[in-house]
Amino acid sequence: MKTFDVFDAAFRADPYSVYTQYRRHEPVHRGRPPTPGDHDSGWWYLFRYADVAAVLKDPRFGRAIGPALDEPPPPVSAEEREPFWDMYRHWTLALEPPEHTRQRALLNRAFTTRVVEALRPSIAARATELLDGLGAHGRFDVVADYAFPLTLSIIAELIGVPQRDLARLKSWSATIVAVLDYKRTWDVMAAGNRMTDEFTAYMGEIAAARRAQPANDLITRLQSAGVEEPLSDEELISLCIMLLFAGHETTVNLISAGALLLLENPDQLALFRARPELADSAVDEFLRLHSPIQATTRIAYADVALGGRVIRRGESATLLLGAANRDPAVFSDADRLDIARQPNRHLAFGRGIHYCLGAPLAVAQGGIALRLLFERRPGWRLADAPTWSETFGFRGLNELKIERMK
Ligand code: HEM
C-alpha cells in the first residue's frame, strides 16, 4: 500500500473508501507523521476496530504529546513563552495517571448525569427559539444558524459564561481547532498563543467573580469540588477553556452530520420521526458513520506487537476512529445508516480512561436538536451540496443549507 497521506485530495474527498483499502490490505500501516516535520522516528496508522479499541485501553500507550510544526521555528527571545501548550498540559486528555485520575474524579463530581438531565429543558427551549426564528426563512444553514448557536449557548450556560460573549467564544474555539488539528503552521501557533492570553484573562475574571459570589454553574462547582486537593487557578481556567471548546465543536458536527444523514435517507427519517424513543440510538449511529473526531494519537511507552508488526517504544500511533467505526468485522452492512442498530459499540467517544466526559450531554443535545428540527418543522430538503472541513482529526460540515419543500 502507498504511504497513507491525510492531506491527499482523494482521501479528503472520500476518506471512507480509503479506510476500506487499508483495513483490508494493511490495517497496521507504517507511514509519515500527519503533521509534516513532526518527530519522524516512526508513525503508525491503525484502521481496524479491534486494534484501535485495544490501544485505547492499553496502558502501554499514552498521551504524552507536545508541539509539532511543519517548519523551523522563528527566532524567539528568552521572554517568549508558548502559552497555548502551557495551558494545554492541564487538559484532562493530556494527562496520565495519577494526575489524570485525580482530575477526572473532580470533573465527574462536578459534571454529573443530574447536571446533564437538568439541562434538557434549556436545550429544548433554545432549539425551539432558534427554529421559530428561522421559520420565517424558507432556507437556512444548519451549521451556522442552528447547531453552533445552540451548542455554544448550552455549554456557556453550563459553565457559567455570559451569553453576550458567544461570538468571542466561537472565534477562540475555532483557533483551538486549528492548533490541535494535525496541519498547523507557526502562524496558526502564534494565533493560538494570542488566543490563549485573551481567553485565559477572560476566564480568570469570571473565576474570580465566582469565588467572590458563587453561582449555580460548573465554574463554582469545580472551585469547591476537590476539598483535599483543590484545583489551582491555572488548572481551573485551563479546564474551563477545554470544556468550552470540547463541549460544542464536536456536537455541532454531530448535529449537522445527523441532519445530512437523515435527509439522504428518507426511510430512516420517516422512522426517526415516527419513533422518538430511537433518538439516542439514532445519535449513536450518526456518530458511528460520521465520527466528529476521526483520529486520535497515542505514543507507545513500550514495544508492542500488533497485527504482525511491532510498534517500538517512543513511536506514535494515529488511531482512525472513523475507520474502526465502519469495520465490517464488527458492524454488519457497515456503511448503511440504521438508526435502530443494536448493539452499536462505536468508538466515536473513545474508550478507556480518556472516554469522553461529555458523551451524555452530546447524546442529549444531538437527540433533542434533531428531533425538534424534523418534528417541529418537517418538509426540509438539501438546498446545496454540502462541503466538509479541511481539518483531518476534527471532521465536520462547513455548512449544510436546507430549504422547505414547496
Ligand atoms: C459529539 C460530541 C463529542 C464527541 C464525538 C467527542 C469525542 C471525544 C473523544 C473521541 C474523546 C477521547 C479522545 C482520546 O481518547 O484521545 C473525548 C474526550 C473528552 N471529551 Fe468529548 N466528545 C464530544 C462531546 C464532548 C462534550 C459535550 C464535552 C464536555 C462538555 C466533552 C469533553 C471531553 C473531555 C473533557 C474529554 C477528555 C476526557 C479524559 O481525558 O478523561 N466532549 N471526546
What order do the helices and strands come in, and which of them pair?
Elements: H1 9-13, H2 15-25, E1 28-31, E2 43-46, H3 49-57, E3 61-62, H4 83-88, H5 99-110, H6 113-134, E4 139-141, H7 142-159, H8 166-180, H9 186-212, H10 218-225, H11 233-246, H12 249-264, H13 266-274, H14 279-289, E5 295-300, E6 304-306, E7 309-311, E8 316-320, H15 321-324, H16 359-376, E9 380-382, E10 387-388, E11 397-399, E12 401-404
Helix pairs in contact: 5-10, 6-7, 6-16, 7-12, 8-9, 9-11, 12-14, 12-16, 14-16
The protein binds protoporphyrin IX containing FE.
Percent range for helical residues? 40-55%
Residue-averaged pLDDT, rounded? Answer: 90
Radius of gyration: 21 Å
Stretches with pLDDT under 50, minimum 5 residues: 66-70
Spatial order of strands in the largest sheet: 1-2-8-5-3
Major beta sheet summary: 5 strands, mixed
Estimated share of beta-strand residues: 5-15%
- Tell me how many strands there are: 12
Heterogens? protoporphyrin IX containing FE
What's the shape?
Answer: globular
What is the number of helical segments per DSSP (H or I, 4+ residues)?
Answer: 16
Helical/strand content category: alpha+beta
Distance between the termini: 49 Å
Element pattern in H and E = HHEEHEHHHEHHHHHHHHEEEEHHEEEE
Describe the protein in words.
- It is a single chain.
- The chain is of the alpha+beta class and 406 residues long.
- Residues 66-70 have low confidence and may be disordered.
- It is 50% helix and 10% strand.
- The termini are far apart.
- It contains 16 helices and twelve strands.
- Helix 9 (186-212) crosses helix 11.
- It has helices at residues 9-13, 15-25, 49-57, 83-88, 99-110, 113-134, 142-159, 166-180, 186-212, 218-225, 233-246, 249-264, 266-274, 279-289, 321-324, 359-376, and strands at residues 28-31, 43-46, 61-62, 139-141, 295-300, 304-306, 309-311, 316-320, 380-382, 387-388, 397-399, 401-404.
- The chain has a five-stranded mixed β-sheet with strand order 1-2-8-5-3, with helices on both faces. Strands 4-12-9 form a three-stranded antiparallel β-sheet.
- Protoporphyrin IX containing FE binds at residues 92-93, 104, 242-243, 246-247, 250-251, 254, 287, 292-293, 296, 348-350, 354, 356-358, 361-362.
